C-alpha cells in the first residue's frame, strides 16, 4: 500500500488549521523522523554561547562596553566592564566563588554547613547564590545601609539576615558588624566564617578572571584601569595581574571621601556609596607593598558619583550603581585628560543600578542626606 506523504507546505497548513481548531488530535508523526543522537548537543566554542554546568560556571566573562557619549571628546577610548552581567548581579560573585571553593578544599564542607559573612550586600548575594546551589546555610550580617532590594534578594536565596543597628566609633557600622560576627562564631563553632577583608582568595578571583578577561578583550593594550576600592579584592587582584603581565598599565583606585580603605586618607567620615570604602584598613591591601600596585588614588563624593551614574544611564543606557558612578566620574573628569585618544582606558562597574531604586535613585533618600542630585526628567512638572 502506498503511503501519501505530506509536502512541508501541506504540513504547516495542517498544523495551522489544527491549532486554530484547538489541535484536538495530535499531528501524525512523520514517517521518517530525524535521527536523534543520544549524545548531548555539542558545546559551542564561542564563549558567548557557552553551556554552563551550574550557576558557578556562569560567573565571569562579562562584557566590556565602549562609552561613546558619556565622555566628551577628545578622550581616550573608554570602556566599562559591566559586572552586573554576573548571575548574582555583581563582581562579588567571582570572589564568593573563589573563597567558598577554597573553604571546601581545606575543610571539606558538607551540605547543611553554616557559612557566616559580614556584608553590605553584593558579597552576601554572591555567597547566598552559591550556598543555595551547594546546600549550605548562609548567615549574612548586614547593617542599615544595605539597599532594601539587596536585603530581599538575600532572603529569596534563603539566607538568614542578622542586622546590626548601632554605629561604631567611626560613625559607620563596619566594626559593629565585625563584633556581631565574633558573637556568631562563638555561637556556631563549626561555622565557616568568611572574612572578605582579609582573604587571599578574594583578590585571587580577580587575578584569575577579571584581569585576564580585560587583557584578552583588548589584546593587552590597556593604558589604565580604574577600580572602586572596598575590601580591596577587585583592585588588588586586577592590579597584581596587570603588574605581573602588563606592567605598563596604570592602576587607578577610587574611594569615597571619609573611607579608610586607601592609605591616602586617615580621617573617617560617614559614607553613602554601597560596597565602596571601609571604616578600618582591610588587610587585603597589603599596605607596605601597595605603592608597587597602585599608580593613582582618587577620592570622590557621593553626590557626584550618583549624578554620574544617572548621566551614564541617560547617555549610554548603562545603569550602574553608586560605585560604578564613582568610577565613571573619574574617567570623565580626570582620566580623560591624562590619556591620548589612541589609548584604551577601562573602568569596572561593580553592579547594577536597579538595586538602588530605593536609595541612591530615590528623591526622598537623597533629600534626607542633603545630596544634591536631581532625578528630574526633562518635561517633568516643576
Ligand atoms: C557595589 C560595590 N562596589 C564596589 C565594591 C568594592 O569591591 P572590593 O570589595 O572588591 O574592593 C563592592 C564590594 O562589595 C561593591 O559591592
Automatic annotation (TrEMBL):
Q: What is this protein called?
A: Cysteine synthase
> What Gene3D superfamilies does UniProt report for this protein, alphabetically?
3.40.50.1100
The annotated region (Disordered) lies at: 1-46
Kindly state which keywords UniProt assigns to this record, in alphabetical order.
Pyridoxal phosphate
Mention one GO biological process in which this protein takes part, according to its record: alpha-amino acid metabolic process
Task: Give the top-rank taxon of the lineage listed in the UniProt record for this protein.
Answer: Bacteria
- Whether Signal counts among this entry's keywords is no
Report which gene this protein is encoded by: cysM
* Comp. bias intervals (Basic and acidic residues): 1-18
* Ranges of compositional bias, category Low complexity: 23-46
Amino acid at each position: 500500500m502506498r503511503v501519501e506523504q505530506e509536502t512541508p507546505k501541506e504540513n504547516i497548513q495542517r498544523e495551522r488549521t489544527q491549532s486554530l481548531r484547538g489541535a484536538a488530535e495530535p499531528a501524525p508523526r512523520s514517517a521518517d523522523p530525524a535521527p536523534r543522537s543520544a549524545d548531548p548537543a555539542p558545546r559551542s566554542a564561542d564563549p558567548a554561547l557557552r553551556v554552563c554546568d551550574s550557576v558557578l560556571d556562569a560567573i565571569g566573562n562579562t562584557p566590556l562596553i565602549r562609552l561613546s557619549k558619556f565622555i566628551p571628546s577628545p578622550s581616550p577610548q573608554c570602556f566599562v566592564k559591566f559586572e552586573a552581567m554576573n548571575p548574582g548581579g555583581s563582581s562579588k560573585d567571582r570572589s564568593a566563588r573563589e573563597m567558598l571553593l577554597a573553604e571546601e578544599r581545606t575543610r571539606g564542607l558538607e551540605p547543611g554547613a553554616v557559612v557566616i559573612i559580614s556584608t553590605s550586600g553584593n558579597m552576601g548575594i554572591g555567597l547566598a547564590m552559591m550556598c543555595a546551589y551547594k546546600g549550605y546555610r548562609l548567615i549574612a550580617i548586614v547593617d542599615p545601609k544595605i539597599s532594601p532590594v539587596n536585603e530581599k534578594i538575600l532572603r529569596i536565596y534563603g539566607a538568614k539576615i542578622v542586622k546590626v543597628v548601632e554605629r561604631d566609633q567611626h560613625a559607620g557600622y563596619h566594626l559593629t558588624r565585625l563584633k556581631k560576627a565574633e558573637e556568631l562564631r562563638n555561637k556556631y563553632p563549626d561555622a565557616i566564617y568568611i572574612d572578605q577583608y582579609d582573604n587571599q582568595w578574594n583578590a585571587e578571583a580577580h587575578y584569575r578572571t577579571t584581569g585576564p578577561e580585560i587583557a584578552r578583550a583588548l589584546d593587552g593594550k590597556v593604558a589604565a584601569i580604574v577600580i572602586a576600592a572596598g575590601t580591596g579584592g577587585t583592585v588588588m587582584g586586577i592590579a597584581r595581574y596587570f603588574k605581573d603581565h602588563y606592567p605598563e598599565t596604570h592602576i587607578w583606585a577610587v574611594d569615597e571621601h571619609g573611607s579608610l580603605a586607601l592609605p591616602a586618607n586617615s580621617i573617617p567620615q560617614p559614607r553613602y556609596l554601597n560596597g565602596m570604602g571601609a571604616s578600618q584598613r582591610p588587610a587585603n591591601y597589603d599596605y607596605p607593598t601597595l605603592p608597587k600596585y597602585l599608580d593613582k588614588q582618587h577620592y570622590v563624593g557621593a553626590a557626584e558619583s550618583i549624578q554620574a551614574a544617572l548621566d551614564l544611564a541617560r547617555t549610554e543606557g548603562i545603569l550602574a550603581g553608586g560605585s560604578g558612578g564613582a568610577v565613571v566620574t573619574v574617567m570623565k573628569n580626570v582620566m580623560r585628560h591624562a590619556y591620548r585618544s589612541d589609548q584604551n582606558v577601562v573602568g569596572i562597574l561593580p553592579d547594577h543600578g536597579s538595586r538602588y531604586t530605593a536609595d541612591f535613585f530615590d528623591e526622598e533618600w537623597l533629600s534626607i542626606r542633603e545630596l544634591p542630585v536631581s532625578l528630574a526628567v526633562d518635561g517633568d512638572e516643576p
